Structure formats: structure tokens, C-alpha cells
Amino acid sequence: MNVRLRIVLTAVTALLVALAILAAPATATKPPEVMAALGDSITRAFNSDGPGCPTGPSLDCAKNSWSTGTNPAIGSQLQRLEAMHPGTDVIAYNDAVSGARASGLLGQAQVAAGQDPDYVTIQIGANDACASTPTPLATFRSEVEAAIATLVAANPKVYIQVSSIPDINLLHALFTNPPDPNALARWDALKVCQGLLANPLSTAQADVERRAAFRQRVIAYNEVLADVCDEFKRCRWDENAVFNSSFTTADVATVTDTSGLDIFPFNVLPIFGAGNPNSTADYFHPSLQGQAQLAETTWNATFRDFVMRRGGVLSR
């Protein structure tokens, strides 16, 4: 009987330990020591504006980035990771490049690999879709694969988060129904994403079909991103969370008043807004509020989900 009792007690103890582990709070998960962000102007928080951001033709404001931002108004992935362990300082590198396409992702990955990150965020593809000659799907796939493979080769334990391309067609719907003259002026003057936004008010069949084809291209790129991410054990896809997220005009870099034309740059930029005569707000990039929404969406769909539901541990 004593032997049987010991066996029962041992089994009960083991069960209680297992339940305790499963019930452990997510804050017990070790945060990464180093993170890196790859991508384009969205991750560089271009045009997000606000105190401390640069003015002029180069408007990257990385402190507002959804991924590595330090502005408390954003609630970036970096800030959320540090909040998991108060007092922990995560080293963060923003290696994204404004204007980048998937063809530039490998170079960014090579830079990041040298920084020895154990957590990397990737958001790429908007510029591939917006280009006058969009990147072929097979090329897009090989370029993304090469970049992720480089990160994994440098550190097989690296955790990679891949976010979907936003549903950019929503911008067209937001600012053409009803037509916003500020948006129309900016899209034309700055030649913003002409694959979608050229002739924005046209109802000609060719233009309607072009916009529909643009959206299908974004969907196809997202399918590629999902497939490639699935090839790597520690890569986490956002299940189209960013693409499926709605947004409002407040989430977009906008201005409220057109008062003329300036010489800056190249004599084509309209003057928008009192106190900001050289604003490059383009009715395309996320605003400060838009960056905060991206941070929330990506966190809930990727790293937070991985920790909460799978008990993932980022270990070096």
C-alpha cells in the first residue's frame, strides 16, 4: 500500500507542477536582449510627425515606430517587451529603410545579423505593390526567403515576426468618398503610390480594374509572406491581422489646409497647415495614432499571442 501511495502522490505532484507551469503568467517569459526591425518607411515612421521629429525632405522619425519606437504615445513592441520585465532594457535597432522593396531586405538582414538579435520584426511589400512595375511574385518570394534565411543562419534561435501589408486600397476609399482636395493634391504632387492612386476620382473601367488588381497583388504578396514564414520554425506570421485592420483618417499622415505652393522641394510641394509650411504629409503613411494602432495590432497577433497561448520563450 505504501508503494502504491507513493506512486499516487508522485503522479499528483507531477500534475500540480505541470498545471502551475501552464498557469504561469506571461511575464515569466524572458524578453529578448536585442531586437531589430526590418522593412520600409512604415517601420521608419516616416511622416508620423510630432515633437522631436525632423522636418524637411527626410521625415523618418524612428522614435515613433510601431516596432522599435521610444515615444510613450506609441506603445511600441520594444516598449511592450520591456514592460514584461520592468527595469529590463532591450537593445533595439531600426534597420528599415524608407522606400525599400523586398530587394533591399537581404541587405537589411545582413546588417541585423551583425547585431545578433534574438527577435526581429519584418514588414515589407507596400513599395513592391506601389511600383510602376510591381515585383513579380516569384522574385518577391526569393527575396524574402533570402533575408529570413540570413537571419536564421546567423542565429538559429532568432524569433522572427512577419507582419502583413496593410489593405492600402482603404486609403483610396477614405479620401475619395467624399473627395478630399488636400489628399488629391498631395497624391498628385508627390506621386504617391500611383499604381493605386493615379486618377483617383476616375470611374473609367480601366482605372477601376487597376485598383482591383492592385488589391489582389497585395493579397498575393501577403500569401507569399505567410508561405515563406511557414518555412522557418521560429517565424510567426500575423495571419493577415494588419491587412484586416481598418483605419480612419486620423491614422494617416494628413493636414487640414492647403494655402499655396512652396519651392520645397522642386517647386511642387503644396503648403499645408499653419506653422508647418513644408509639411510632407502625404495621405499615405501612418500618423502617430496610426503607428500606435500598428503596435497594438502586431503585438496582439504575433509576439503577445505566441507568449500567451504557446508559452514561448525567447532564449539566446
Describe what you observe in this structure.
There is one protein chain. Helix 2 (77-84) links the parallel strand 1 (34-39) and strand 2. This protein has twelve helices and seven strands. By secondary structure, it is an alpha/beta fold. It has helices at residues 2-22, 77-84, 105-113, 126-130, 137-154, 169-176, 181-189, 194-197, 205-230, 241-244, 288-301, 303-310, and strands spanning 34-39, 91-94, 119-123, 159-162, 235-237, 258-261, 270-272. The protein is globular. It has a five-stranded parallel beta sheet, with helices on one face. Mean pLDDT is 83; it is low at 5-28, 261-275 and 308-316. The chain starts with a helix and ends in a 6-residue tail after the last helix. The chain has a single domain, classed as Rossmann fold (3-Layer(aba) Sandwich).
Question: Any chance you could write out the topology, listing elements then pairs?
Answer:
Blueprint: H1 2-22, E1 34-39, H2 77-84, E2 91-94, H3 105-113, E3 119-123, H4 126-130, H5 137-154, E4 159-162, H6 169-176, H7 181-189, H8 194-197, H9 205-230, E5 235-237, H10 241-244, E6 258-261, E7 270-272, H11 288-301, H12 303-310
Parallel strand pairs: 1-2, 1-3, 3-4, 4-5
Antiparallel strand pairs: 6-7
Helix pairs in contact: 3-5, 5-9, 11-12
